[in-house]
Amino acid sequence: MTFSKKIVNFLRNEKQVVLFLCIETCFFIVTFLSNFFKNLVCQSIILVLVIFFCIFSLYLLFKALHYLDTSYEKQIKETLLAEQINYQNQHILSIMQSEKDLMKIRKELQLAVRNYNIKTEDESRKLADCLLEVYKDRILISYCSNKVIDAVLYNKSLLMKKLHINYAITALINENIGIEDYVLMAVLVNMLDNAIGACEQVTFGKRKVLIDLYKKSNYVIFKVENSIRTNSNIELTSGKSTKKNKENHGIGLQVIESICKKYQGSYHFKVNTKTKMITCTAILMIPGENTNE
């Protein structure tokens, strides 16, 4: 895209901003011309124009800022929705592969029973355990009844297996909980990415992530606990990070805190120096739900 086309697109899409700049230009011209008019009537007219342009420019500034803020939120939402669709598509493919693997295990069990003449229940159980061990990394595990959260947890569990991170997952969040799926996904993905990133800096055998997701009263609570380096310098303030990819990490924290604030919740963390673990907790209030539930 050429520079001229970019300018044209900007003028089309950012009309509020352009109008504000035009009014400010007119304001500057009128103020400048006032130096050349000494007549009282002309000065009065210029004063009225200056007051009008001041008020109108402030109004346009408010509208422009509101428009830019709305556009930014819309862009974030579209990005998160695309990411949500990607997670769900990957999950669907995993389900299809898991069904094929289960059919293969069933056939191998039937074949083994015929070939090895297995008669006792103990022998059958041992054979089944052996086959399950072979396919354990490819059998689909459902962690949560909420499909989006389940897709994210499954995706991240595969990544944690690949990175040799021990993990435990408890997820008790239902479908249609009252918060949009892309919001839940944004908080969970960023928290898990931060936890996995921290674990990558820990030596093998000491990597651990504990995930606890649940609903309490009218709140949804995300609690993620993960191991950290012995000499790690924890900086979990918005925009700050000790990780290599500092920019994205800081943005991730900003997303979490922004969502928590929007849903009248909170985000905080606690470091346990004895166990070398950090616990991060994000709390979101479910809109319009009775607190006495």
UniProtKB/TrEMBL annotation:
Q: Which UniProt keywords apply?
A: Membrane, Transmembrane, Transmembrane helix
Q: Does the keyword Nuclease apply?
A: no
Q: Does the keyword Membrane apply?
A: yes
- Domain Sensor histidine kinase NatK-like C-terminal, which positions? 184-274
In terms of InterPro entries, this protein maps to:
HATPase_C_sf, NatK-like_C
Q: Transmembrane residues, as ranges? A: 17-37, 43-62
Q: Which Pfam families match?
A: HATPase_c_5
The protein's matches in SUPFAM superfamilies, at most eight in alphabetical order, are given as: ATPase domain of HSP90 chaperone/DNA topoisomerase II/histidine kinase (SSF55874)
Q: Mind telling me what this protein is named?
A: Signal transduction protein with a C-terminal HATPase domain
